[in-house]
Amino acid sequence: MKISVSGIRGIFGKDLTLPDILKFSNNFSALIKSKKCVVATDTRPSGNVILKTVKNGLIESGIDVYDLGIAPTPIAFREARKYGAGIEITSSHNPIEWNGLKMIIDGKGLNEEQLHLVVGKQIHNKSKIGSEYFIKSNYIDDAKKIIGKISGVPKITIDVGGGAAKTIVAKLLEEIGCDVITINDDLEKSSRGPDPTTSPLKDLISSTNGRDVGFAFDLDADRLVVVLNGKKMNPDVTLGLGVIKSLELGYKNFVFSQDTSISIEKYIKQKGGKVFRSKVGESNVSMKMLETKSQVGGEGSSGGFIFSDFNHCRDGILTSGLISSMILKDTFHDMLNFMEKYHIIRDKIECKLEHQDQVMKTVYKNLNEKYNEIQTIDGIKVIVDENTWILIRKSNTEDIIRMSIESESLEKSRNIHQETKELIKQSYEQIN
After folding, report:
1. Looking at the domain assignment, is residue 149 inside a domain?
2. Sign (positive/negative) of CA torsion 165, 171, 176, 181?
3. The whole model's pTM is what?
């Protein structure tokens, strides 16, 4: 089981069981001051039985439950603003056999203290029995107000991967004036896996021939990957294209995770904006946004864009609408051309959890001898020069160490990638 502020996840029936889910739901109820909680699930086969268990745990603890049925994470977050709390049943981009819980308080994900209470010792809430209601969301109407008018009639193909996006994305894009084709709307027949950031998206690429853009979503629709001109774009492009709409709307302060492309930061600064950096992770970005009074943020590595005036979470649905409204404008292509000058490489190296701290110490020592500027806000970040950086982070939940490298020179990115990868491997071998 993986437990973090991003959610509780595991293989259902193996390391995530119904008694676990009942306990977590019951404990979560202690955090709900409003005594009201929105619930929803993505399309995973295990979703319905988990949904019933979650509702039982909440109702038995005196919480009124408002059931959205199958609905993406951004809708659950949006509705949780109104009701005070929410639970989305999903493991996001993880394999189908996985499932989990994303918990929401006051429209935001849990912090570390709240998470500790949820997964800690069983809390016994003695209260009157709550009630159950079935609700619908006004998400589309609310999103349309943010997106505004669009130019022309963009031709868009969406690949929902059989996920919860199928309930809403096509309708939103059509209502703002797009010509929409949907593929992979059935989970059992989907030609790809849950994670659009790792899938080659071959069907979407072929389906966008002669069309303006393709969008691919993960199962709970918080992640979005863009396909343009027969090519799958790296996930940072999603964030970059969301940014140009934000600048058009007049927003000036932005927060990005440490592993987000520097190209987006440079573009914003050229336009008179300001950029703050946070630790990797959606909740870390959100907290930094509140701290710096920034309205826009995101994580380039996950294809995640956060627009806090609308939602305190990565919102692939809203982002697809924002990008669609810009497709036929010159600024859309200006951002793409700017980002194409930079080359980012992301990789992971096998390393047992128990050895990661020691490996990181060894890696830091070696890098510190070679480079002048090293940041340790989140892992080890080396500023090689004004256009080049390295980020190395331990996983904490998996037997891997993650690394990201970016430079204006593709050759330079590749060379640094190989050098850094070898350094990590050698540091690990020394321990073994």
Report:
1. no
2. positive
3. 0.93
